[in-house]
Amino acid sequence: MKINWNYIKLFCLMICITGLYAFSNHRNAERPIRDVEIIFEGDNNVYLSKDMVNKLLIQNYGSVLMEDKEKVVLNTIEKVLETHDMVKSAQVYLTIDDKLTSKIFQRQPIGRVKGNTTFYLDEDGKSMPLSKLHSARVPIITGEITGKSLDDVFEILKYINQDDFLRKNVIGIHIQSEEQYQLKFRVEDFVVNLGDVIDLERKFKNFKAFYAKALKDQSLKDYAVVSLEFDNQVVCTKI
Prior knowledge:
The chain is α/β, with parallel strands linked by helices. It has helices spanning 5-30, 50-60, 74-81, 147-161, 164-169, 200-217; strands spanning 35-41, 87-94, 99-106, 109-114, 118-122, 127-128, 140-143, 170-177, 180-185, 191-195, 223-227, 235-238. The chain has a 9-stranded mixed β-sheet with strand order 6-5-4-7-8-9-10-11-12. A 3-stranded mixed β-sheet has the order 1-3-2. A hairpin with a 7-residue loop joins strand 11 and strand 12. It starts with a helix and ends with a strand.
Protein backbone atom coordinates (compact mmCIF):
# COMPACT_ATOMS: atom_id res chain seq x y z
CA MET A 1 0.00 0.00 0.00
CA LYS A 2 1.35 3.36 -1.00
CA ILE A 3 1.63 5.89 1.82
CA ASN A 4 0.25 9.33 1.03
CA TRP A 5 2.88 11.55 2.67
CA ASN A 6 0.96 14.71 1.81
CA TYR A 7 -1.88 13.69 4.16
CA ILE A 8 0.61 12.85 6.90
CA LYS A 9 2.36 16.20 6.50
CA LEU A 10 -0.96 18.00 6.58
CA PHE A 11 -1.99 16.10 9.73
CA CYS A 12 1.29 16.93 11.47
CA LEU A 13 0.98 20.57 10.45
CA MET A 14 -2.52 20.78 11.93
CA ILE A 15 -1.28 19.24 15.20
CA CYS A 16 1.54 21.78 15.36
CA ILE A 17 -0.77 24.73 14.65
CA THR A 18 -3.30 23.52 17.25
CA GLY A 19 -0.55 23.08 19.82
CA LEU A 20 0.90 26.52 19.15
CA TYR A 21 -2.56 28.08 19.36
CA ALA A 22 -3.32 26.34 22.67
CA PHE A 23 0.08 27.32 24.07
CA SER A 24 -0.42 30.93 22.96
CA ASN A 25 -3.87 31.08 24.56
CA HIS A 26 -2.54 29.62 27.78
CA ARG A 27 0.32 32.12 27.94
CA ASN A 28 -2.05 34.97 27.12
CA ALA A 29 -4.49 33.92 29.86
CA GLU A 30 -1.68 33.98 32.40
CA ARG A 31 -0.71 37.53 31.50
CA PRO A 32 -1.93 40.14 34.03
CA ILE A 33 -4.28 43.04 33.32
CA ARG A 34 -2.13 46.16 33.09
CA ASP A 35 -4.77 48.83 32.53
CA VAL A 36 -8.49 49.51 32.97
CA GLU A 37 -10.35 51.59 30.40
CA ILE A 38 -13.86 53.01 30.86
CA ILE A 39 -15.73 54.27 27.80
CA PHE A 40 -19.10 56.02 27.97
CA GLU A 41 -21.08 55.33 24.80
CA GLY A 42 -23.85 57.50 23.34
CA ASP A 43 -24.72 61.12 24.13
CA ASN A 44 -25.30 63.10 27.33
CA ASN A 45 -22.92 61.10 29.51
CA VAL A 46 -23.21 63.50 32.42
CA TYR A 47 -24.84 61.44 35.16
CA LEU A 48 -21.96 59.11 36.00
CA SER A 49 -18.18 59.63 36.21
CA LYS A 50 -15.29 57.25 35.59
CA ASP A 51 -14.24 57.63 39.23
CA MET A 52 -17.69 56.45 40.32
CA VAL A 53 -17.39 53.41 38.04
CA ASN A 54 -13.95 52.53 39.41
CA LYS A 55 -15.20 52.84 42.97
CA LEU A 56 -18.18 50.61 42.19
CA LEU A 57 -15.91 47.93 40.72
CA ILE A 58 -13.47 47.97 43.62
CA GLN A 59 -16.25 47.83 46.23
CA ASN A 60 -18.20 45.01 44.56
CA TYR A 61 -15.57 43.04 42.66
CA GLY A 62 -12.14 44.12 43.83
CA SER A 63 -9.17 45.49 41.95
CA VAL A 64 -8.44 43.81 38.62
CA LEU A 65 -5.10 45.45 37.97
CA MET A 66 -2.30 42.85 37.73
CA GLU A 67 -4.88 40.07 38.02
CA ASP A 68 -4.38 37.15 35.61
CA LYS A 69 -6.76 37.40 32.68
CA GLU A 70 -8.05 33.87 33.18
CA LYS A 71 -9.18 34.73 36.71
CA VAL A 72 -11.33 37.70 35.64
CA VAL A 73 -15.01 36.87 35.09
CA LEU A 74 -16.26 39.37 32.51
CA ASN A 75 -19.98 38.55 32.93
CA THR A 76 -19.73 39.20 36.66
CA ILE A 77 -18.10 42.60 36.06
CA GLU A 78 -20.87 43.51 33.61
CA LYS A 79 -23.51 42.61 36.18
CA VAL A 80 -21.72 44.68 38.83
CA LEU A 81 -21.69 47.72 36.54
CA GLU A 82 -25.36 47.29 35.66
CA THR A 83 -26.33 47.45 39.34
CA HIS A 84 -25.60 51.19 39.31
CA ASP A 85 -28.74 53.33 39.08
CA MET A 86 -27.28 55.42 36.25
CA VAL A 87 -26.19 52.50 34.05
CA LYS A 88 -28.49 51.18 31.33
CA SER A 89 -26.15 48.46 30.03
CA ALA A 90 -22.46 47.52 30.02
CA GLN A 91 -20.08 45.52 27.84
CA VAL A 92 -16.77 44.31 29.27
CA TYR A 93 -13.95 42.69 27.30
CA LEU A 94 -10.19 42.14 27.30
CA THR A 95 -7.92 43.54 24.60
CA ILE A 96 -4.74 42.04 23.17
CA ASP A 97 -2.67 44.71 24.93
CA ASP A 98 -3.77 43.46 28.39
CA LYS A 99 -6.42 46.10 28.96
CA LEU A 100 -9.82 45.55 30.56
CA THR A 101 -12.28 47.75 28.69
CA SER A 102 -15.78 48.58 29.94
CA LYS A 103 -18.23 50.21 27.54
CA ILE A 104 -21.09 51.78 29.47
CA PHE A 105 -24.39 53.19 28.25
CA GLN A 106 -25.87 55.67 30.73
CA ARG A 107 -29.60 55.97 31.34
CA GLN A 108 -31.24 59.06 29.86
CA PRO A 109 -34.01 60.95 31.72
CA ILE A 110 -36.91 62.39 29.71
CA GLY A 111 -39.01 63.79 32.56
CA ARG A 112 -38.65 64.80 36.22
CA VAL A 113 -41.40 63.70 38.60
CA LYS A 114 -42.12 65.96 41.58
CA GLY A 115 -44.45 64.30 44.07
CA ASN A 116 -43.91 62.86 47.53
CA THR A 117 -40.47 61.97 46.18
CA THR A 118 -38.55 63.43 43.27
CA PHE A 119 -37.07 61.26 40.55
CA TYR A 120 -36.56 61.05 36.81
CA LEU A 121 -38.55 59.04 34.30
CA ASP A 122 -36.05 57.53 31.88
CA GLU A 123 -36.29 56.71 28.16
CA ASP A 124 -37.64 53.24 28.99
CA GLY A 125 -40.38 54.58 31.27
CA LYS A 126 -38.60 53.46 34.45
CA SER A 127 -37.93 55.52 37.57
CA MET A 128 -34.39 56.87 37.81
CA PRO A 129 -32.86 58.69 40.80
CA LEU A 130 -31.49 62.20 40.54
CA SER A 131 -27.79 62.52 39.76
CA LYS A 132 -25.32 64.27 42.02
CA LEU A 133 -23.35 65.37 38.98
CA HIS A 134 -25.94 66.90 36.69
CA SER A 135 -29.52 68.16 36.67
CA ALA A 136 -31.34 67.33 33.44
CA ARG A 137 -33.39 69.98 31.64
CA VAL A 138 -36.52 67.92 31.06
CA PRO A 139 -40.25 68.57 31.55
CA ILE A 140 -41.42 68.69 35.17
CA ILE A 141 -44.24 66.27 36.02
CA THR A 142 -46.62 67.29 38.81
CA GLY A 143 -50.08 66.43 40.11
CA GLU A 144 -51.74 63.08 40.82
CA ILE A 145 -48.81 60.68 40.52
CA THR A 146 -49.97 57.08 40.07
CA GLY A 147 -48.70 54.08 38.14
CA LYS A 148 -51.36 54.58 35.44
CA SER A 149 -50.78 58.32 35.12
CA LEU A 150 -47.01 57.85 34.82
CA ASP A 151 -47.55 55.27 32.08
CA ASP A 152 -49.62 57.85 30.21
CA VAL A 153 -47.10 60.61 30.86
CA PHE A 154 -44.40 58.35 29.42
CA GLU A 155 -46.41 58.07 26.19
CA ILE A 156 -46.75 61.86 26.06
CA LEU A 157 -43.03 62.37 26.68
CA LYS A 158 -42.11 59.87 23.96
CA TYR A 159 -44.21 61.81 21.47
CA ILE A 160 -42.81 65.16 22.62
CA ASN A 161 -39.22 63.95 22.21
CA GLN A 162 -39.89 62.93 18.62
CA ASP A 163 -41.03 66.45 17.69
CA ASP A 164 -38.52 69.32 17.59
CA PHE A 165 -41.11 72.03 18.29
CA LEU A 166 -42.64 70.25 21.27
CA ARG A 167 -39.29 69.12 22.69
CA LYS A 168 -38.01 72.71 22.72
CA ASN A 169 -41.16 74.28 24.13
CA VAL A 170 -42.94 71.91 26.55
CA ILE A 171 -41.50 72.38 30.04
CA GLY A 172 -44.13 70.71 32.20
CA ILE A 173 -46.91 68.12 32.37
CA HIS A 174 -49.53 68.44 35.09
CA ILE A 175 -51.66 65.40 35.96
CA GLN A 176 -55.11 66.65 36.91
CA SER A 177 -56.32 63.07 37.22
CA GLU A 178 -55.83 59.84 35.34
CA GLU A 179 -56.56 60.53 31.65
CA GLN A 180 -56.60 64.29 32.21
CA TYR A 181 -53.26 65.95 31.43
CA GLN A 182 -52.16 69.54 30.98
CA LEU A 183 -49.07 70.88 29.22
CA LYS A 184 -47.07 73.93 30.25
CA PHE A 185 -45.05 75.80 27.61
CA ARG A 186 -41.73 77.60 27.95
CA VAL A 187 -42.83 81.03 26.74
CA GLU A 188 -46.60 81.10 26.48
CA ASP A 189 -48.78 81.77 29.54
CA PHE A 190 -51.65 79.51 28.53
CA VAL A 191 -51.97 75.86 29.51
CA VAL A 192 -52.93 73.13 27.07
CA ASN A 193 -55.60 70.67 28.14
CA LEU A 194 -54.57 67.48 26.40
CA GLY A 195 -57.17 65.15 27.89
CA ASP A 196 -56.18 61.49 27.58
CA VAL A 197 -53.36 60.00 25.51
CA ILE A 198 -55.57 58.65 22.74
CA ASP A 199 -54.69 59.92 19.24
CA LEU A 200 -51.83 62.19 20.29
CA GLU A 201 -50.76 62.70 16.69
CA ARG A 202 -54.10 64.26 15.74
CA LYS A 203 -54.22 66.42 18.86
CA PHE A 204 -50.74 67.85 18.40
CA LYS A 205 -51.29 68.35 14.68
CA ASN A 206 -54.36 70.46 15.48
CA PHE A 207 -52.45 72.34 18.16
CA LYS A 208 -49.53 73.22 15.88
CA ALA A 209 -51.95 74.48 13.23
CA PHE A 210 -53.66 76.68 15.86
CA TYR A 211 -50.30 77.87 17.22
CA ALA A 212 -48.99 78.88 13.79
CA LYS A 213 -52.14 80.90 13.04
CA ALA A 214 -52.28 82.55 16.47
CA LEU A 215 -48.57 83.39 16.27
CA LYS A 216 -49.15 85.05 12.90
CA ASP A 217 -52.16 86.97 14.28
CA GLN A 218 -50.16 87.87 17.43
CA SER A 219 -53.04 86.57 19.56
CA LEU A 220 -51.26 83.90 21.65
CA LYS A 221 -51.18 86.25 24.64
CA ASP A 222 -54.99 86.47 24.60
CA TYR A 223 -55.57 82.87 25.68
CA ALA A 224 -55.59 81.30 29.15
CA VAL A 225 -56.50 77.70 28.19
CA VAL A 226 -56.19 75.80 24.93
CA SER A 227 -58.10 72.52 24.87
CA LEU A 228 -57.31 69.62 22.54
CA GLU A 229 -59.81 67.21 24.08
CA PHE A 230 -62.45 67.51 21.38
CA ASP A 231 -62.41 65.80 17.99
CA ASN A 232 -60.80 67.75 15.16
CA GLN A 233 -60.98 71.13 16.87
CA VAL A 234 -59.09 73.38 19.25
CA VAL A 235 -61.23 75.12 21.87
CA CYS A 236 -59.69 78.20 23.49
CA THR A 237 -60.59 80.18 26.58
CA LYS A 238 -59.55 83.83 26.49
CA ILE A 239 -58.07 85.69 29.42
